[in-house]
Fold each of these.
Amino acid sequence: MPRGLCDCARNDRQWLELIQAGVVWPMADGRVLRGERELRGYRDREGYRFIGIRLRGRRLAISLGRLVWMACHGVVVPVGHDIHHVDGDIANNVVWNLEPRLPSEHRCNSTSFGALDF
């Protein structure tokens, strides 16, 4: 397995363990709580929202969509998959709007999405 995929899978497992231990609480509406506090996170250059925490002196970060999907499904995202926003709105991290896709499927849908008319 390429190094990047291995690192991503390890990161997903660590976050899933934090969810299962009750350290972080991703909500179906896209919010994430740690205790009583809502984690705000940050946005990357493309506008995707990320959540980060310090764990045993190490920074651990994950995309919000990925975290919400894993919390609601109880499993890690399949290796090699990205989380796709079904409605094309990367700020909409509610669970029904998220689904795992292979990068080739994800890019294909993302580039053609603008042509759809709602």
Amino acid sequence: MCLFISSIQRALFYGSQNKNITIVHAQSFLLNDTYPSNWRRKVTKSVTARGINVVLDDYVDDLEIKDGKINTRSGKPIVADLVVSFFITVRKNNPKLEL
């Protein structure tokens, strides 16, 4: 799992100059509310400063790419050739990665 996460991190933070990357997140800032709001704002700002598109307060229910795009729950179309879905849940300070 750590290797997979490292690959995602490299793609997001080092490979994004050649790729159009969009992150869809259900809350108003990246990460979850386990982290302080000011930290979450800084992370969101840092990610967008790297040229990564961020769609907040929205979801992707259907991961199937149709006609070269996916749609968010609110109806926003996102051009896609690859969709990676993952989330991390934290219970009693024990993170669990689910893909």
